[in-house]
Amino acid sequence: MKNLLKFNLMAVLMLVFCTMMTAQDKQQRMNREELAKKQANYIATQMAFDETTTQRFIETYCAYQQEVWALGPNHKEEPTNDAEAEQAIKERFERSQQILDLREKYYEEYSKFLTQQQIQRIYELERRVMNRLNKHREHNRQEHKGHEKE
């Protein structure tokens, strides 16, 4: 009887703990707009922009991100035959071209208020931030897969 009571108590505590951790994870997740603004703020801080340039950069960067998101997701289901594979490849080329067009458009916007060296540094910082986010996502996916197996 005593062991059963201990077991039930442990099960309840485990359930409460797991619920709290799930709630905490949901609270810590940011939406796309918040993430883009945070990235832009980080880049602006690293670049040591003045207040006016920082504000203009954040607005421009967030507008660029919104246009990229409007293109939709960049991957779909795995093709099962050659025709689907060909279509998927062509869609990737089209999306890559659309992103390139957006990058050129926003390069022109950045050129209105930043130097070429600043723009180049921004691209480097953006790449570094995106690599860090991708590593974090991959780590979370691996953790999530590990939990599913249990």
Give an overview of the whole structure:
With 150 residues, this protein is an all-alpha fold. It has 2 domains: 1-30; 31-149, no CATH class. Helix content is 85%, strand content 0%. The chain contains 5 helices and no strands. It has helices spanning 2-28, 32-47, 51-70, 82-111, 116-149. Helix 2 packs antiparallel against helix 3, helix 2 (32-47) packs across helix 5 (116-149) and helix 3 (51-70) packs antiparallel against helix 4 (82-111). The longest helix is centred in the last third of the chain and has 34 residues, at 116-149. The two termini are 28 Å apart. The model is unreliable at 7-13 (pLDDT under 50).
The level of helicity is: over 70%
Shape: flat
Strand percentage lies at under 5%
Total beta strand runs: 0
Order of helices and strands: HHHHH
**Terminal residue distance:** 28 Å
Please describe the biggest sheet, giving its number of strands, its sense, and whether it closes into a barrel: none
User: What gyration radius follows from the Cα positions, in whole Å?
Assistant: 22 Å
- How many domain modules? 2
Poorly predicted runs are 7-13
Q: Can you count the helices?
A: 5
Chain-averaged pLDDT: 83
Q: Specify the structural class.
A: mainly alpha
Q: What is shown here, in short?
A:
This protein is an all-alpha fold. It has helices spanning 2-28, 32-47, 51-70, 82-111, 116-149. Helix 2 packs antiparallel against helix 3.
